[in-house]
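Reopening this ticket.

The earlier resolution said the output was attached, but the attachment link was broken on my side. Pasting everything inline this time so it's all in one place.
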Amino acid sequence: MTSPTLDPRRLLLLALAAAPLAVACTGADLGAAETDEQTGATGIFIDPSSSSEGGEQSPELPAQCALEAFTCPHVLRTPVMLVLDNSYSMRAERVGVWDHDGDDADDDGLVDGDPAQLATPRVTRWRSLHGELKMMSALFGDRLEIGATLFPAFDRTAGADAPLCSVSATPEIPLGADWEGMVLDRKIPFSIDNVPGGAAPAAAAIDTALAALADRHAELPGAIVLITDGAANCGSEPGAYDERLLAVVTAAQARGIPTFVVGIDIPTGIVTPIADWLPDGVVGVDIRAALSGLAEAGGTARPGDVKFFAADDQPALGSALAVIAKETTSCLIQFDVPLDEDTYTLASLRITTQDGQSQVYGAQPVADCATESGWRFAGDRAHIELCGDACTLHQAGGSLWFAVGCVGS
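Inline output:
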């Protein structure tokens, strides 16, 4: 058996998470000031990607400029609620399997273009999603606080008898919880165990996700990621398209909470349900058009005719999640010790990209973050916002370095 080859599209997942990290800096680690050969700035150089929220705190600063008393700042993690389609068509072996690696489009069991080779066995859409979410959590957990709510709700005790349009009032995975641990504790399903009858109450699930973001009281409003393989069909009557979903997404965007939309294996045109007994479908709805409308309402429309992330195979699903992780990465950095303007200066900001190139921004903050590139204080001198190209380079995995110096030195 040959070793599996990593699809080039999935390399994006690894590239975005591979930013170089420095040793975490506390007061004892910083030592004396030094001069950066690239920028000429003199100060203590700190890397916010190397420390985490809630780490060791600095002692009270003495009256004089005491750079050695600083701890590293940290990049604020964005709270991201995943809203996951847990319906029958996602998880049941009978109808939920798909050509996840795109090697058997005609479904004859043989590799397309090579009839002498057996195709990879098909897997459920849920199994593909589950694997990609595990990777997303592992690679981007230092950037994002990830939570998840399912629609319909996963109740392993109720199984197929659970109400078709039920949604839990609280997320199955709370924001920032350990994804792997929650799965092992059976807080969410792994594959096809206890498959619910499963309609698609997506609007109610987003309600739960928005409530969780509000309860978080984070400095960042957060984001919603809706992942589905069909249309929301818990409307005014069973099987009817849920028109409320568009209103919920629109209201969230008005609160500063975007909704990213990922469609798994979405058919083209108006599709009739596979069978009368299958509650996952709706009649008379173009699902691709509906999902594109949701992406536009959520402020995350992609370029081109298809406005949502169309994941037609598992590599495309992984790439979509990587792009979403990049775009939701915060460009707001918090210092544990504010940079008192009479004592401290931010001498320079350097961002080192994946290929080792450096972009340097000087000591002067930008006046307009919407049109300029660089940095500025955000609200107070304990928060720094990256602007324009500086934010883009950071989101792409660039390593941040700040030079903090003393006024008059």
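Reporter confirms the inline version is readable. The CA atoms of residues 66 and 166 lie 57 Å apart. The longest strand covers residues 344-352.
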